[in-house]
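Researcher: We're teaching a course module on how sequence relates to structure. For the next exercise, students receive a sequence and then see the predicted structure as tokens, so they can try to spot secondary structure elements on their own. Here is the exercise chain.
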Amino acid sequence: MRYIFSEEQVVVPDDVSMKIRSRIVTVEGPRGKLTKDLSHIAVTFTLPEKKNKDGKQVLNVNIHHGSRKNVATLRTVKSIIDNLITGVTKGYKYKMRYVYAHFPINVNIEKTDDGRQNVEIRNFLGEKLVRYVKMLDGVNVEPSKGVKDQIEITGNSLENVSQSAADIQQICRVRNKDIRKFLDGLYVSERGNITED
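Model: And here is the predicted structure for the students to work with:
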């Protein structure tokens, strides 16, 4: 079955400006600028000059003659744009805790030449191997103040922040041992925004 017309609406806050050109969405806000290429998804964007009855600017995302799967992508596109707006207004923060039974994990944070940060993990399960994780663009890592064995990963792009956290967690996977017994690693303990309101 085909749906003749389907539409989702994204409310754009006053302090955020949005530009869409050939399905490449650029969102600019108080925290910075984010760009997302959605040219592979066959949807139509309309950003009317007039505001809605509440005085807010609204972005319309619609699709004509879409199948059920095509209509499902509308909600995905809406969520992606909502995440971009949240990123440039509030930012994203992930907290990760070190978990170890016997060998304490040592984590060092270094700056690389290209301005990104490198996370260096030593003494995982007592191994001599040093694990390195390079953070993605716009991602900042720092040890938590006042909390032992915790790091905070912050940034504007939800994709980059969550992928950096996942890279750290996955590099500390326990191999060739019973993972029910060996629970060591770095795990995400809390997800939130940088500016809480």
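Model: If you want an answer key for the exercise: Helices lie at 68-89, 158-171. The chain has a mean pLDDT of 92.
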